[in-house]
Design a protein that fits this description.
By secondary structure, the chain is α+β, with helices and mostly antiparallel strands. It has 21 helices and 26 strands. The strands form 4 sheets. Strands 15, 16, 17, 18, 19, 20, 21, 22, 23, 24, 25 and 26 form a 12-stranded antiparallel sheet that branches. Strands 1, 2, 3, 8 and 9 form a 5-stranded parallel sheet that branches. The longest helix has 21 residues, at 324-344.
Length: 732
């Protein structure tokens, strides 16, 4: 055959910042290492390889032999190293200065590691906006890969997607390859011949062109069922051999080779887009369900394929609307990036510059994309990944305070629109804790950072409807009917329905308010814990109501006072004032004073203050509650209704964190876990998100209409600090 085309294979290997070491190791053994083993047998096959910085740093430490193997394959021209932003942030989720900074920093790192400049890059999750072309080009990148879906959204036809295009912004040019969605579903899920047949059909119609495949390397061994399929059943070896057997008309090339030997097809301006599935996930839940129902109903229509090019889902940035918890991380990151940029503009001593460099590294790590959204992978729903983001953001914050040369004991209070909702929030900070309050949303305490352990106790996640919950309900019914899914099938992640725990369909429930701290509840007298767990019993309008706020300062303490007049049942103009104080002499304690006034005299009232504590695992014996006498009360997953007492504590021995809630008036305490049912690459799973701890008081309103209580939130990290002293010093 005289016709021929080029096939550019681009692999993207990534593990998120904060993933478990065992997950890194399993992915290395199941995907990254065996892929090179097989590739080494076929020197005629060249690929472009991207490895995220978070993964590559781990590999450098854990498996330096892999780096040596890469160098040898690079030297013989079989692998081209592709760069990108260092810690795999979504470009739409970070400021422009950090886009350029991350891409440039990773290019320098790769150059130092492999001894050559990086020309191309991987765009994380292929989330694209038109202005990125100039940012990427300014960072020194010549070309990248997106999806053919991006180009279809720009109006191109299928027969115009074989090659690459120029894209321009502010006079800067970038070359962009359209990655084939068809190949993402044939490789490795269909027999190699399916890919060959598709490529041959293109070669016959458009000889001399380029077809690009770009997708996750984890689908070659790490995704469920693929290790057996790809390696034990030799799919990859058969695939590469088939490519070689067809080299009379099919040449497998790197992106660099394609750019150097083939001219661009022209210029194309791409719209805001990502891969097709991502645009679906970004839709609001109700609209996503409608979208999926519509597409499934119409996909058998003969006109469907033609119509699909004109159908588009949502916009990636709206994940921050869909999931307020993602926005909380985003605005925290944005605040730190702005403070860092401002401090870098000043004259700094060498010691300050060292601290600012550390802050930048921690900031970049805290921008890793995986927990800022949710789709077929756990992402935002995985507490250990959210904890990792906050760990690096808190470390960046502390490094900035070091650069600012703070004294040993200090407190600060500020009001600003920290969460970008056009209303002011309050930040209380000291050398041990950082707290954020939202007066316009119930006066909630929505972030509480422990500097010593770099842990946000309020990195919570609400239970909310997801479109895939319908699959959970249907699968649960099939299991009860004695039907099951084929565990041995090899399917795309997007098509799997597997339960990682039994009876998940029976555990679906949703939250009616944010699961944060200082959530003020007026409840029906005599309300049971079970009814409250189910979201019932509320008779007031304080849970998410707007509070007015005042800031107070002295040399020894700072305080935020928040006041609201509201309704409880038929009674109006009840007043709740709560004050949150941080004392420089007690930097690990928050003193919280509640004063209730204008209460209806001689009327029974039931008042509670909800706390949620996140990041503390629930199903191990070294994570437990304890009472005022120090006696253990059960694991942190325990559902408890405790008699009146003045103190309850939570301990996570692994974290080395002890958190206690103390009350000046004896209170009943309710505890129960918040657990979500979410989708991940391994199937559907139950995930512990936070522990609810709620002191509550039932009393008859006094004749003067006033009632008060003082709560003390105490954080003890001495166990973690003692453990750190025993660990060997790290040499940098």
């Amino acid at each position: 055959m005289t016709v021929g085309i080029r096939l550019a294979l681009v692999l993207h290997n990534h593990q998120p910042v904060g993933n478990f070491d065992g997950v890194f190791e399993a992915a290395y053994q199941d995907s990254y290492a065996p892929f090179l083993d097989v590739l080494d047998e076929f020197p005629e096959v060249a690929i472009s390889l991207h490895t995220s910085g978070s993964l590559l740093e781990w590999i450098v430490d854990a498996h330096p032999e892999y780096i040596d193997r890469l160098r040898s394959l690079i030297e013989r021209g079989q692998i081209e190293i592709v760069g990108g932003p260092f810690y795999e942030p979504i470009l739409a989720g970070i400021p422009r200065r950090d886009r350029i900074g991350q891409i440039t920093a990773y290019g320098k790192y790769l150059d130092g590691l492999f001894g050559g400049p990086v020309r191309g890059m991987w765009v994380p999750e292929r989330v694209w906006e038109p202005s990125f072309a100039a940012d990427v080009a300014e960072a020194g990148i010549e070309y990248t890969v997106l999806d053919d879906y991006h180009f279809r959204n720009a109006g191109l036809r299928e027969d115009q997607l074989h090659g690459y295009y120029l894209c321009e912004d502010e006079g800067q040019l970038l070359k962009i390859f359209p990655g084939s969605e068809r190949l993402r579903y044939t490789i490795p899920f269909q027999e190699p011949q399916a890919t060959i047949d598709y490529l041959r059909s293109i070669a016959e119609k458009a000889p001399g062109t380029i077809v690009t495949f770009g997708d996750d390397g984890e689908k070659f061994g790490t995704w469920p069922g693929t290790k057996k399929h790809v390696y034990e059943e030799a799919w990859l070896r058969r695939f590469l051999r088939t490519l070689c057997d067809n080299r009379d008309w099919l040449q497998v090339v790197t992106l660099a080779n394609a750019v150097d030997n083939v001219s661009p097809l022209g210029t194309c301006y791409l719209p805001d887009c990502s891969y097709r599935e991502m645009t679906e996930w970004a839709l609001p839940t109700e609209r996503q369900s409608q979208y999926l129902e519509l597409t499934h109903r119409l996909e058998e229509s003969p006109e469907w394929r033609g119509a699909l090019d004109f159908i588009k889902g949502g916009f990636w940035r709206n994940f921050r609307v869909k999931y307020p918890e993602a926005n909380e991380m985003y605005v925290r990151m944005l605040e730190l990036s702005g403070r860092l940029d401002e401090m870098l503009q000043a004259d700094n001593s060498p010691e300050q510059l060292d601290a600012l460099h550390q802050a930048k590294q921690e900031l970049y790590r805290g921008q890793c994309n995986c927990t800022y959204w949710h789709g077929a992978f756990g992402g935002l729903y995985l507490p250990h990944l959210r904890d990792a983001i906050y760990r690096h953001l808190i470390a960046a914050d502390t490094a900035l305070e070091t650069a600012a040369e703070r004294t040993d004991r200090w407190t600060q209070i500020d009001a600003a629109d920290f969460n970008l909702d056009a209303r002011k929030e309050i930040r209380i900070a000291g050398e041990r804790l950082v707290a954020y309050l939202a007066p316009s949303r119930g006066g909630h305490l929505y972030e509480l950072d422990i500097r010593s352990t770099k842990h946000n106790l309020l990195a919570t996640l609400n239970r909310r409807p997801e479109p895939y919950h319908q699959k959970v309900l249907e699968a649960g019914q099939r299991q009860r009917d004695g039907e099951g899914d084929d565990e041995n099938s090899v399917a795309s992640i997007h098509d799997m329905v597997r339960f990682k725990q039994p009876d998940l369909d029976k555990k679906l429930t949703y939250d009616n308010w944010p699961r944060k701290a200082l959530v003020d509840h007026f409840l029906q007298p005599g309300l049971s814990l079970e009814a409250f767990q189910a979201g019932g019993g509320e008779v007031g309008d304080f849970v998410t109501g707007v509070y007015e706020s005042r800031l107070r300062r002295s040399d020894e303490w700072v305080e935020a006072s928040m006041t609201r007049e509201g309704r409880v049942g038929p009674y109006k103009q009840l007043c709740v004032e709560k004050a949150v104080r941080l004392d420089s002499g007690r930097g690990s304690h928050l003193k919280i004073t509640y004063q209730l006034s204008n209460l209806p005299a001689n009327v029974p009232l039931h008042f509670g203050v909800e706390f949620n504590f996140a990041g503390m695992a629930a199903n191990n014996d070294d994570r437990y509650y304890y009472d005022a006498d120090g006696r253990q009360l059960g694991r942190l997953e325990a559902v408890q209704s405790l008699e009146a007492t003045t103190r309850i504590g939570l301990v996570d021995e692994w974290l080395g964190v002890d958190v206690a809630v103390e009350s000046s008036q004896p209170a009943g305490f309710w505890t129960f876990p918040i657990q979500t049912i979410s989708q991940s690459e391994g199937g559907f799973e139950l995930v512990h998100q936070s522990c609810v701890v709620m002191p509550h008081w039932e009393f008859m309103a006094p004749a003067d209409g006033k009632w008060s209580v003082v709560l003390n939130l105490a954080v003890d990290t001495s166990a973690a600090q003692a453990r750190q002293l025993l660990e060997p010093a790290t040499v940098v």
